[in-house]
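Lab meeting notes turned into a lecture example. A postdoc, R.K., suggested we walk through two folding results consecutively so the class can see how the record format repeats. The first protein's sequence and structure tokens come next.
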Amino acid sequence: QVQLVESGGGLVQSGGSLRLSCAASGRTLSVNAVGWFRQAPGKEREFVAATSWTGGGTLYADSVRGRFAISRDNVKNTIALQMNSLKPEDTAVYYCAAGRWYNDYDVQKGYGMDYWGKGTLVTVSS
């Protein structure tokens, strides 16, 4: 089992920045993919970004590419999401996820992400 706990959410004005963090514990050696997803009120969960836990590929949703950056620290077992130039449409609950990277399509769909945090709310005011 892998436990994931997100932090860093809050209220920010449009154009501002926030940094989310996800602390991973447990059998982290069993996963090779970590990522962030989000769910806005009344909408389905959507992919935000993912990276290999062991080094390698990184993926971003088109809506956040160039504004958000995902990073990981294998020593501290943390995953971060730096969010810049935030927009009101970025408002959502952000979830950290971990699991297996089978292919890029599956990662973006959340397939293989066996472990999920409880989420942290990000609100961007206009």
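The second example is placed directly after the first for contrast:
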Amino acid sequence: QVQLVESGGGVVQAGGSLRLSCAASGRTFSRFKMGWFRQAPGKEREFVAAISWSGGYIYYGDSVKGRFTISRDNAKNSVDLQMNSLKPEDTAVYYCAGDTSMGASVNSWHGSYDYWGQGTQVTVSS
């Protein structure tokens, strides 16, 4: 089994920054593609960012491109999401997810991911 635990959420003013971290335990983390998703109340789960096992492929959702940065440290079994220039519309529960599928490409569809964390709340005040 794989366990994913997010941390780093909180309340921040618009224009501010937060860094989310996801710690993984269990199976070989370094071979997982990792992603971040978010879900606001009453809305569908939205793709935020994904990174391949090597870090060579990175993909961002249009709404966060240029503001968020995903990174991973396979030695530490962790993946981070640096969020800058935060907006009130970034308010959501943020989830870390692991994709065990083969291939180098990363996925933006939440159905591709096999493991999920419990989520961490990010609130951006205006």
